[in-house]
Amino acid sequence: MTTDCPDCDGSGTTGHESDCPAPEEDIPGSVASLLQTIEQPLWMEHAACRTAGPLPFYPEPLHRADLAREYCDSCPVVDDCLIHAVVVNETHGVWGGCSPRERRRVRKAWVLTGEIKRENKTIWPVRAGE
Ligand code: SF4
User: Fold this and answer.
1) Residue 118, domain member (yes or no)
2) Model-level pTM?
3) Ligand 1 atom closest to Cα of 69?
4) For residue 95, what is the DSSP state?
5) Is the CB of 72 under 6 A from ligand 1?
6) What pLDDT, on the 0 to 100 scale, is given for residue 38?
7) Among candidates 42, 23, 22, which has minimal Cα distance to 33?
8) Is residue 25 situated within a structural domain?
């Protein structure tokens, strides 16, 4: 096994290999892309709302978020945004075109099934060819 751990020599005899960080090449593609979505949200550079400011996305209680949804409907990174919000458990505002209540449902299903879905379509994990 290769390792990215600075304390290992690759011999497998140091005794703490089970605690070592996995080398990047051992991380399955879908999990690696999930980590990138969470840790390095490059997708935000392409967000339709990047110049909109936060107000439309955090409406007053009992007010609708129609303007936010208009942005999200035309957003090229809407799935990345929803995946991010579900995984980091964003509890406020509109993310990925979904309200906090809608995201709670998506998150509950993710915990149960391992899949993040939008309108019954799996958006994570992304399968080859999709
Ligand atoms: S999906 Fe909506 S909230 Fe997310 S980046 Fe796009 S416009 Fe912004």
Assistant:
1) yes
2) 0.75
3) 2
4) B
5) yes
6) 76
7) 42
8) no
Residue 107 C-alpha to ligand 1 middle, in angstroms?
18
pLDDT at 32: 73
Q: What is the CA 11 to chain-centroid distance, rounded?
A: 35
The confidence score (pLDDT) of residue 119 equals 94
Read off the pLDDT of each residue in 41-47 and give the average, rounded to a whole number: 91
Instruction: Indicate whether residue 96 lines ligand 1 (CB < 6 A).
Output: yes
**Overall number of domains in the chain:** 1
Ligand 1 in reach of 97 Cβ (< 6 A)? yes
Judge if the beta carbon of residue 95 lies within 6 A of ligand 1: yes
Least Cα distance to 99 among 70, 58, 52 occurs for 58
3-class secondary structure, 118:
strand
Ligand 1 site, residue 82, Cβ cutoff 6 A:
no
DSSP 8-state secondary structure symbol assigned to residue 87: H
The predicted-structure confidence for 105-127, as pLDDT tens digits, reads as follows 999 999 999 999 999 999 999 77
| Residue 65 CB less than 6 A away from ligand 1 | no
Assess if residue 90 is contained within a domain: yes
Report CA(95)–ligand 1 centroid distance (Å).
Answer: 6
Whether 93 is covered by a domain: the verdict is yes
pLDDT in tens, 60-94: 988 899 999 999 999 999 999 999 999 999 999 99
